[in-house]
Design a protein that fits this description.
The mean pLDDT is about 95. Strand 3, helix 5 and strand 4 form a beta-alpha-beta unit. The protein starts with 15 loop residues before the first helix and ends with a helix. It has 15 helices and 13 strands. Helix 2 packs across helix 12, helix 4 runs parallel beside helix 5 and helix 6 packs parallel to helix 8. The protein has 2 domains: about 130 residues, Aspartate Aminotransferase, domain 1, CATH 3.90.1150; about 230 residues, Aspartate Aminotransferase, domain 2 (3-Layer(aba) Sandwich). By secondary structure, the protein is an alpha/beta fold. The strands form 3 sheets. It has a 7-stranded mixed β-sheet with strand order 2-8-7-6-5-3-4.
Length: about 425
């Protein structure tokens, strides 16, 4: 008898013209040495690349707490959310978690998103109203750019990276040239990060606040609102890992804070901290929240685990050890001495777990480290500006002094090899 199982229909094949376009674009990237590929991390390698700053993703204490949360769920409790937060995906557990996190961060309320990318896109695509102006740091994350691209704001204007004077100049110019900004009929949003992902530098937030308050005060009824992304600060900076904003005590000066869970907290997702009215507006208008399946219970339990550890002070020793290792690596790199900046240059901001090893040939330096079992990655244009390519090194509380010594010795051996090649080339 013939089989009753229907044969699957073949997927429609792309037209030759489409495939040619795709291949041409990829080939052009390859020629520019900017082609991205998915790679697997060797399980025996030493991690100097991930954003797992507190090493919670491999912490036995974290794992024990997390599995306890999972096992505490009632029988047949759904692990999947089953839908959007606005349909079947909401739960008392999620709402209690939002309240707990908001309280930890001294915020009136919070709203969970599936990722930091979704949070930034959701906020910036819908909060600025028609005719409003967004003033942003020139190095703001790609997710913020995507949100601004979808925004109804009238203008999106960059200012020089982490430069209070540039922010002041741009803010004054925008308000002076727009009567509706001056009268308060339209709004200005200042979008920054507290710690920048590629250079690891900490934004001068207190100085920014002073600039904005001074300019707004001099312009009558003008309104200006800060939106700050704390993705790389969460867990690693501030009291019990609460972030740079709370370290400075300027929570009330921030209109929106975005904290993410996929870096130092070893989890997944993000929260937007804001006032209740803003939260309700996001629930109604943030498409990256409305039209996606909500985080399931295992993700929520993981986030809860991380924040309980922060709130109870169980990560403070990890923070201290991380700072010790940051200082140690900084001293070891300083001891390498001066090298021709055309070959190698270290760029590092005090207290930051992110180090930039600048080099015109970052792929070669990264490959040398990887051959010795140290996982680092080259960061190329367009992720960073052309001419500022580097190897990005991230430290973690779980790294050891011996691992750092091995990494630095590998870098030194590579540098000596480059010098030898130059001498031979001159002969």
């Amino acid at each position: 008898m013939p089989s009753s199982t229907p044969k699957p229909s073949p997927s429609p094949s792309p037209t030759p013209n489409l495939l040619t376009s795709l291949r041409t674009a990829l080939h052009q990237r390859s020629l520019k040495q900017s082609l991205r590929r998915l790679t697997l991390v060797p399980p025996t390698s030493t991690d100097f690349s991930s954003n797992d700053f507190l090493s919670l993703s491999t912490s036995p204490l974290f794992r024990a707490r997390y599995t306890s949360h999972l096992s505490s769920a009632p029988p047949f409790y759904p692990f999947a959310s089953g839908g959007s937060r606005l349909l079947t995906g909401n739960s008392s557990y999620a709402e209690a978690l939002e309240t707990f996190i908001a309280s930890f961060h001294n915020a009136p309320s919070g709203l969970l998103f599936n990722s930091g990318f979704d949070a930034n896109v959701g906020v910036l695509s819908c909060i600025p109203q028609p005719g409003d102006v967004i003033i942003h740091d020139e190095y703001i994350h790609a997710s913020a750019h995507e949100g601004m691209r979808l925004s109804r704001a009238g203008r999106k204007v960059p200012f020089a990276h982490s430069c209070p004077q540039s922010l002041e100049d741009v803010l004054r110019r925008e308000i002076e040239n727009d009567e509706k900004l001056k009268s308060g009929e339209r709004n200005v949003f200042i979008v920054i990060e507290s710690i920048y992902s590629m250079d690891g530098d900490i934004a001068p937030i207190r100085e920014f606040v002073e600039v904005v308050e001074r300019v707004v005060k001099s312009k009558g009824n003008a309104n200006a609102y800060f939106i700050v992304d704390e993705a790389h600060a969460t867990g690693a900076f501030g009291p019990r890992g609460a972030g740079v904003v709370q370290e400075l005590g300027v929570e009330e000066k921030m209109f929106i804070r975005v904290h993410t869970f996929g870096k130092a907290l070893g989890s997944h997702g993000a929260i937007v901290l804001c006032c209740p009215d803003t939260r309700e507006y996001l629930v109604n208008y943030a498409r990256s929240l409305i039209y996606t399946t909500a985080l399931g219970f295992p993700f929520l339990a993981s986030i809860r685990t991380a924040y309980e550890m922060l709130a109870e002070g169980e990560t403070e020793e990890l923070q201290r050890n991380l700072q010790h290792l940051i200082e140690y690596l900084g001293n070891r790199l300083d001891a390498l001495g001066s090298w021709d900046p055309a070959i190698f240059e270290v760029d590092h901001f005090p207290r930051s777990p992110i180090f930039s090893l600048r080099s015109p040939v970052p792929r070669q330096l990264a490959a040398a480290c990887q051959r010795k079992g140290f996982m680092v990655h080259p960061i190329m244009s367009p992720t960073v500006p052309k001419g500022k390519e580097r190897v990005r090194v991230c430290l973690h509380a779980g790294n050891t002094v011996e691992e750092i010594d091995g990494l630095v010795e590998t870098i030194l051996a590579w540098l000596n090899g480059r010098e030898s090649e130059k001498r031979v080339a001159r002969l």
